[in-house]
Amino acid sequence: MNSPDPEYPNMMKSTASFTPKMEDYLRHLYRLEQETDSRVSNSAIAGRLGVTPPTVSSMLETLSDRGLIERERYRPVRLTTEGKELALGVIRRHRLVETMLSELFDYTISEIDTEADILEHHLSPRLCGEIEQLLDMPEIDPHGDPIPDTNLNIPPTKDATSLNEVSESSCVKVTRILTQDDETLDYLISTGIEPSVRFRLEEKTPIGMVTITFSDTEQQTSLPQGIASQILVSPVDDF
C-alpha cells in the first residue's frame, strides 16, 4: 500500500500499484455491498460491469491476493477494511469529478459518469481538495450520492424513500437517483426529474405507472414503477 499524501493523510494515492481496472472493481464492489447490505456474487459484479464471469473471477483472484477482498470458494465476496478504504478513495474522486463536470462545464447527469470513469484514476489528493474548495465543499454529487470527505467519511444523508413507497397526494423532493444507466438518466432528464426537484404524487395506476405533478410548472408526467423505484425522495411541507 502506498504512503498517503502529507496534506491529506487518510487519502490513498492512485498509482500503477493499483490499476484503473482494479479501482473500477473496488468502486463497484463497494456500491453493490451498500445496495444489498451483503456479500456480492460474481454474477452481480459481471452484470454491473458488463463483463463475463471468467473475467470477474480472474480479477477477484487478483484483489484477493492483494488483501482487498475476502474470498472463499463458492461464496460471494466482500471488501476488506483495506479494500473499503481504497474504494472510498476512488468514490471520492469519482463523485468530485462528476460534481465539477456538472457545475462548471454543464454536463448532464447522464454524461458525467463516463467522463468521471476516465478522470477518477488520475486525480491527486491535493487536486481533489482544490476541486472541493472551488465547489464550496459539496456533500453530494449530481445524482444525490454522498461524497466522502478527506478522511473518507461519508456525510450523513437525510432519510429517503423510494418513490414507489410514497402515498398518493404526498409532496416530496428528489434527494437521490440510484440508477447509473444512461438511457434511464436521459429519460428522467427529459421529464424534468433530478435531485432537488419537487412534485406531488397524484396516482399509482393499476397498469404500473406513477403519475406526478411538478411544483414549479404544475405539469404532469407518468413514470413506470420500475423507474420510480430508482428515485429516492423525502417529504416536504410546501408544494
Sequence stretches where pLDDT stays below 50 over 5 or more residues: 6-16
Relative helix content: 25-40%
Order of helices and strands: HHHEEHHHEEHEEEHE
How many beta strands in the DSSP annotation? 8
- Could you tell me the radius of gyration in angstroms? 19 Å
What can you tell me about this protein's structure?
Helix content is 40%, strand content 15%. The protein is of the alpha+beta class. The strands form 2 sheets. A 6-stranded antiparallel sheet has the order 3-8-4-5-6-7. The protein has a two-stranded antiparallel sheet with strand order 1-2. α4 packs across α5 (112-119) and α4 (81-105) packs across α6 (125-134). The radius of gyration is 19 Å and the shape is globular.
Considering the chains and any ligands shown, give keywords for the structure.
globular; 239 residues; 40% helix; two-stranded antiparallel sheet; alpha+beta; 6-stranded antiparallel beta sheet; 8 helices
